[in-house]
Structures are given as structure tokens and as C-alpha cells.
Amino acid sequence: MKFNQQVDKQSILILLGCFCNNPRLFNDERYVTTEYDFPENFHKLIWGAIKNLVKKGNLEEITPMLLNSEMSQFDVAYNIWNMNDGWQYIEVAKEQARNEYKNIGRYYDEVRKYSMIRNATEELKMNVDFLYNENNEETMKMFSSMTSNDILREINEKFTKFKRSFKGNNDDVLSF
Prior knowledge:
The chain has 176 residues and is mainly alpha-helical. Helix content is 59%, strand content 0%. The longest helix has 19 residues. It is elongated.
């Protein structure tokens, strides 16, 4: 399955909107994100521009104008910003997130869940059908009810079981 196309774009939109409406949330350890949480270059660029703006100063709000100015410094980024109507995207994101900042944890967790699955598939070449399989209604129901911590725990358990299968009785003693 090509998982890189599976994303929760609505959660990404609202999460980015929350970061724009309240930039202090960007550095809040409860909502730490990385560029790997965003599968599309457009979202990665917005995330990177927010990161740069937050680093530059104590902002009360990040506006489309600030992001446009940040993007305009880089030709490729600015082209992607314009091709995706970035100004309008941020206006919509900010508006939809206006009353959702109290629920930022929910949107953050959804973005992270998909990110973990996508990166396990792409980077680790892991089969994640046990967590996410669109052809299995029960698996999808389970995935929907899981948190990002649950996903991480399940992936970690797979590795732990794998490691255990290769451990012998004398792990520290190598004999010939």
C-alpha cells in the first residue's frame, strides 16, 4: 500500500492554524512536530516558515502576510506557496482553528498518528497492515480509536518481539 498518500489534511490544516493563531504553541513540548509530520512539500514549507518566524521573535500571531514575506525569500518555496494559494490556505486554517485551540491535542495526535505510520512504511519499510489497512474495517476501527502513543507502542512492540526472537540464553557470552 502506498501510505504516503494517506494523511489527515483537515487535522494538518487546523494544527497549522493553531500554530499561526498562537505561535507559543509551536514550542510547547506537548505539541512538538517535525517536518516529517507533513507529507506534502506545501505543508512542510508552511511548517518551516512558522518555525523560522517563531525563532525570530515573540509573536502574538502569524499572519498570511508574515508567511508570504518569509516564503518570498526563497524562489522555490515562494512558487509552491503561490501555486497552492498559500495566503488563502492560511486564512482558512486560522479561521477553522480559531475555536479549536482548546482541542489542539486532538489534531496534533491525528497528525502524529499518520506521520508514524507513514514513516514506518517509508523509512523502515515496515508492513503496517496490523495497524492501518483500508481493506479491513476492524483494523481501521482500531486505528481510529488509537492515540499516537498507542501507535508508537505497537510499532515498538514489533521490534521488541523481533529482538527477542534472536536472543539466546547466553546473550553476554559469545562462544565458539
